[in-house]
Amino acid sequence: MSYRVLVLISRLNEYRLDNHSIVPNALLHAGHQVSVGDIETLGIRDSTVICDLFALDREYRDGVPFPDLKLQTASAEDFDIVWVLTNPHPTLLLDAFQLLWVLNQRVPFVNDASALLFLNSKITLPAAVDREHLPTSYVSNSFDALNEVVSADENESWVLKPSNEGCGSDVYIVSLKTKNSRALLQSTTGNEICRYEMYGRPTIGLSRKYVTMQRYVPNVVDNEKRVMLSGGVPFCGFRRFHHELDHRGNVTLGNAFEGLQLTPEEDHFCRALGQSLMDQGVYFAGIDLAYPYVLELNLANPGGLNYSFRATGRDQSSEAIELLFAALEAKGRLRPRRTERVASAAANAERSCDMEVTL
Ligand SMILES: Nc1ncnc2c1ncn2[C@@H]1O[C@H](COP(=O)(O)OP(=O)(O)O)[C@@H](O)[C@H]1O
Ligand SMILES: [Mg+2]
């Protein structure tokens, strides 16, 4: 069946070979009606959620300028499904999520607005992944609390990461053995001691930041994978290789990668996680996996289709769309269109004349 799909992205100068071009192209290719909207223009007009959007008339390649001139302000509600493929800009974050949430009350999303807000974070991992598949983790804004953990075992290393960033930014290793660690723990929790000393708490106000601290997983170097899930099925991704001078395996940082191969155990685990994520409103995701551990979940714009294509030459975007819509339909998440509802109601009415049908 063909659906009207609104893909929300943030505006770029030109298309790149990433989800923002790959997904709309694949949707079009599969016969859906696709509009691309700019998430930064979301608003409400007379109770209807609107945004600037354009109807995709053809598949765009990377390097093609984003077609500014075609953008028009229109209802974001006249769609069967909305696919949010970007995080709102930090300046607009809360308002944009509230707008998305209103929209999501009216139109199903590939990944629910609430899931995008709450589960796309290192903080909320325990709400999505079983304890035995998470490295021991702490979320805190207290230097003392985290320093106590690090000080408890000189042989243990820990990874500090901001809860809501990405691409390896501000991801640090700390351990009792390295002299930088206390400074990093202080910096990532807000430099409370230094700032209160320099300015005074009454002047500077609260000087704390949250950070997530995970136990360092040693096998990350030998076996780190990005696994893409569509409709709960691990269908593509890539294996990461770590640069010898960097502990982070993000490919955005220039690390090498190759096509994905999952062991039967990993595949089984990812399928089970895929099912439970769908129960939480997540149908398209990228998992950072160093089996048996999940390092993080990527729900807004997980890279995978692009790198897998680069590594293997295989374009799996059509497979992603097939798996996704099969799952959305099977779970009853896609409502039949109004015209189809009218037709089926008419057929029902014909079958049983005395039955009252409410449209
Ligand atoms: N607990 C960990 N143990 C070992 N390495 C880790 C751990 N967490 C993260 N890393 C490394 O740092 C990289 C970036 O961390 P990640 O949690 O994926 O955050 P980001 O959102 O920045 O990608 C990972 O791809 C991995 O190589
Ligand atoms: Mg990551």
TrEMBL record:
Domain of life per record: Bacteria
Protein name in the entry: Prokaryotic glutathione synthetase ATP-binding domain-containing protein
Gene3D superfamilies: 3.40.50.20, ATP-grasp fold, A domain (3.30.1490.20), ATP-grasp fold, B domain (3.30.470.20)
Record's signal peptide: none
Organism: Ideonella lacteola
InterPro entries attached to this UniProt entry: ATP_grasp_subdomain_1 (IPR013815), GSHS_ATP-bd (IPR004218)
Pfam family, one: GSH-S_ATP
Record-annotated Prokaryotic glutathione synthetase ATP-binding domain positions: 133-306
